[in-house]
Amino acid sequence: MICETICKNRFFQPKPCPVSYLRLWSSACDNLSVFKTHQKENQREKMVEEFAFDNTEERRKIRRNNGAGWIEVIVGSMFSGKSEELIRRLRRAQIARQKVQVFKPVIDKRYSIEQIASHSGMTHISKPVMTAKELMAQIEDETQVVGIDEGQFFDMEIIQAVNQLANSGKRVIIAGLDQDYTGKPFEPMPQLLSIAEFITKTHAICVKCGETANYSQRTSDSTARVEVGASDKYEARCRQCFVPHSDAPTIV
Ligand code: ADP
Ligand code: ZN
């Protein structure tokens, strides 16, 4: 108000009024602070978005209200980051001081018998089990989170088992291959996808062309459905580069 009065009074003066400068400056400051607030809000939104990707904390709160648990399934081809994602979620649960139990089928001895491991070297302690029944026998009452890796190597009883765990209030996170080396759905993962509350599909990078890979290309001669291996026997391929049988490895 004072400023406007002074400005009007100085309307005919050749030099701009210093108070106007002051006003301009203060409005610029206001804009800057509005900008900063917007920036902060954007950052917050981004964080919420990132959080929502997993948003298991929120789910946990929602679910706790009615006492029921739930099932999260992580599927994708080999090298797509399923184990990394499973380990990330398990670590967060442990940071939240929840009681976690992790299992993997005995068949998978690639890196260690007592650990689940990613191709990038992330590990998490786990118990080896032969069957779904054996897994269930080891579940402790106070366990809040049950992690299972390589779900495709379990028998069909795993479907009933994870349902039972979720019904009893536990959060179950199960990772596994959704397709075998010929591109066929890999039981029991399709059934687990059907009963899961939350599904995450992970993708690798096609080693032939760099596109998004959805397939595990077998590069060894075996025709057995289950052939445990890593980059010695498999590589990630996209739809275009995948062949539904063994193929020569890509030379890079
Ligand atoms: P999955 O459990 O799905 O087999 P992992 O979590 O064990 O996958 O490993 C994912 C890691 O594999 C990636 O972070 C990356 O370091 C490595 N990797 C090797 N080859 C590829 C590829 N072709 N595409 C993407 N990641 C790859
Ligand atoms: Zn490709």
Describe this structure in words.
The protein has 252 residues and is an alpha/beta fold. The protein has a domain at 71-202: P-loop containing nucleotide triphosphate hydrolases (Rossmann fold, 3-Layer(aba) Sandwich), CATH 3.40.50. Helices cover 37% and strands 20% of the residues. It has helices at residues 2-9, 18-54, 56-66, 82-95, 132-137, 157-167, 189-195; strands spanning 70-76, 100-105, 115-117, 123-125, 127-129, 145-148, 171-177, 198-202, 204-205, 212-213, 215-218, 234-237. The strands form 4 sheets. Strands 5-2-6-7-1-8 form a 6-stranded parallel β-sheet, with helices on both faces. A two-stranded antiparallel ribbon has the order 3-4. The protein has a two-stranded antiparallel sheet with strand order 9-10. Helix 6 (157-167) links the parallel strand 6 and strand 7. The longest helix has 37 residues, at 18-54. The N and C termini lie far apart (73 Å). Mean pLDDT is 83; it is low at 1-14 and 43-53. It binds adenosine-5'-diphosphate and zinc ion. Residues 206, 208-209, 211, 237-238, 240-241 line the site of zinc ion.
Summarize this entry quickly.
This protein is an alpha/beta fold and 252 residues long.
* Radius of gyration, taken over Cα atoms and rounded to an integer in Å: 27 Å
CATH topology of the domain at 71-202: Rossmann fold
Strand order, largest beta sheet: 5-2-6-7-1-8
- CATH class assignment of the domain at 71-202: Alpha Beta
Largest sheet: 6 strands, parallel
Based on the structure given, which CATH architecture of the domain at 71-202 is correct? 3-Layer(aba) Sandwich
Taking the alpha carbons of the first and last residues, their distance comes to: 73 Å
Catalogue the ligands. adenosine-5'-diphosphate, zinc ion
The tally of helices reads 7
- Beta fraction: 15-25%
Give me the strand/helix succession.
Answer: HHHEHEEEEHEHEHEEEEE
**Which bin fits the share of residues in helices?**
25-40%
Mean pLDDT: 83
Low-pLDDT parts are 1-14, 43-53
Structural class: alpha/beta
The CATH homologous superfamily of the domain at 71-202 corresponds to: P-loop containing nucleotide triphosphate hydrolases
Number of E-type strands: 12
Outline type = elongated
